[in-house]
Amino acid sequence: MSNGRSKGSVNVHKHQRVGLPQKSSRRLASIAQAAEEYGVCSKTIRRYISAGRISAFRFGPRMIRVDLEEIDAMLYPLATAA
């Protein structure tokens, strides 16, 4: 009995994302939480997302999360006068 699939076909669930890197050290936070954590306005976080400076992840139709580890990686020390 045939199930309509050719031999060697890949069975992928319709909601499964393919091609996203697996990162176990992700610390996800809402836009408001990230803004509070780094002392900036939530509009700044949204601008960084729009500009592609940080990645955002959508869970459902409205919930957006950002990776705090990714924001941490953007931080760099300022040079001081010697």
Automatic annotation (TrEMBL):
Q: Which InterPro entries match?
A: DNA-bd_dom_put_sf, HTH_17
Q: What's a Pfam family this protein contains?
A: HTH_17
Q: Where is this region: Disordered?
A: 1-25
The transmembrane segments are none
Q: Which domain of life is it from?
A: Bacteria
Q: Which residue intervals define the domain Helix-turn-helix in the entry? A: 30-75
Protein name, per record: Helix-turn-helix domain-containing protein
